[in-house]
Amino acid sequence: MNNIIYECYLEAGKIASKVRKETLPRIKEDIPLLEIAEFVEERIKELGAKPAFPCNISINEIASHYTPQDNQPVFKKGDVVKLDIGTHIEGYIADTAATVEVRSNDHSLLIQTSDEALKNAIRHVKNGVETSQIGKIIETTINNRGFNTIKDLTGHNLERYNLHAGVSIPNYKSFFSHSIKKDTVLAIEPFTTYGRGNIKHGKPFIFAISNKCKGKTTQDITKIFESLPFTPRWIPEIKMKELKGTREYFESIESDGKIVAQTEHTVIVNEEDCEIIT
Ligand code: MN
Ligand code: MN
Description:
alpha+beta, Creatine Amidinohydrolase, 5-stranded antiparallel sheet, globular
């Protein structure tokens, strides 16, 4: 990886990590989710990066892909909150997530298990590691604590302006596998749940321009976000109806309605290990 690109990743990672740490303590009962999402997105810009996607704040059985549009909902006591943040510098993306509870400690083991699964996985990442091996470590860690992993949600490699660049990092020992090479940038993100870990789709709140999109509005949006995800509240002057053919990111919801925790870091793969940039 050339030095300029490496520096962009490091800076994007540093900012994502800083914003995550600053934001988690601000998640409090009765505060609108929107206030947190806007804090995250503004803080990323203040620190010199751009959001790589709308701040995801997914609560309880919602595993991912929710972002608020207005002053409802608000955080409630006992909510298990997944905060998922993406930053980029010149298209070089860092992706990170953590889970907290609102004024309770009922799900610490679930959350800690997600953290532990990520830590164990990262310890094994180096040139030549198999994606199914990473998945196996994640699954074993989670099952050993009596929880289930979510097989339908995966980590992914990152490329310039490309959030899911083709390689998936499974959260279980998958049949299919891929050998990871040095310099690959990976987002690894175990999801842990009390449920069986199947996913159903909710509504879409996050969209991206796809090659099916046509017209002037598409060009305007592409100029701002490239191919990266955006959300309607970012472009109040544009009606979503004008944007036919967009890719929709549906909310991922645990189908038993059980609580989900998530932990995510972005790493750069080295010969003998990997470097956590978030
Ligand atoms: Mn993420
Ligand atoms: Mn991710």
